[in-house]
Design a protein that fits this description.
The chain has 4 helices and 9 strands. Strands 1, 3, 5, 6, 8 and 9 form a 6-stranded mixed sheet that branches. It folds into 2 domains: 30 residues, no CATH class; 116 residues, SoxY domain (Immunoglobulin-like, Sandwich), CATH 2.60.40.2470. The radius of gyration is 18 Å and the shape is globular. The protein is α+β, with helices and mostly antiparallel strands.
Length: 153
């Protein structure tokens, strides 16, 4: 094993994986305080404000891929694709969940702005995709009906 490889493995194994990935340019950091406020927000307006997206414009260039009716609210597959140039961030919000922000993704330059995740939904709700592109915020929504709750039991 080469010395450089050993040093890298020791550094990664030593608990500083995030620092290693960030130094290699493979991980973008985001201020923890802003992210924490967004996850703790209880209303749509508070969540948008914590993300810095107050006054976001509606956009048809954001596509939410989700079932119209989710048979099991414990596992609802949702995808968001941005067709906006210079997309920097994609966030997914579920309006009637205890914590509206389900996920927030920084999109690095050159990466395709297309994310997917599985979320819990306790009840039928609007799902919002918030996109930051070229320094401006855009939003779109889709209603997802849930037949079996996932958040509350």
């Amino acid at each position: 094993m080469k010395p450089l490889r050993r040093t890298t493995l020791r550094t990664v194994a030593g608990g500083s994986l995030a620092a290693t990935l960030a130094s290699l340019g493979l991980l973008a950091s985001r201020p923890a305080a802003a992210q924490s406020k967004a996850f703790q927000a209880k209303t749509l307006a508070e969540t948008l404000a914590a993300l810095g997206a107050t006054g976001a414009a509606d956009s048809r260039d954001i596509v939410i891929t989700a079932p119209d009716i989710a048979e099991n609210g414990a596992v609802v597959p949702i995808g968001v694709k941005s067709n906006l140039p210079k997309t920097e961030m994609i966030a997914l919000l579920v309006e009637k969940n205890p914590s509206l922000l389900a996920g927030s993704y920084e999109i690095l330059a050159g990466a395709e702005p297309d994310v997917s995740m599985r979320v819990k939904m306790g009840q039928s709700s609007d799902v919002f995709a918030v996109v930051k592109a070229d320094g401006k915020f855009f939003i779109t929504r889709k209603e997802v009906k849930v037949t079996l709750g996932g958040c509350g039991g």
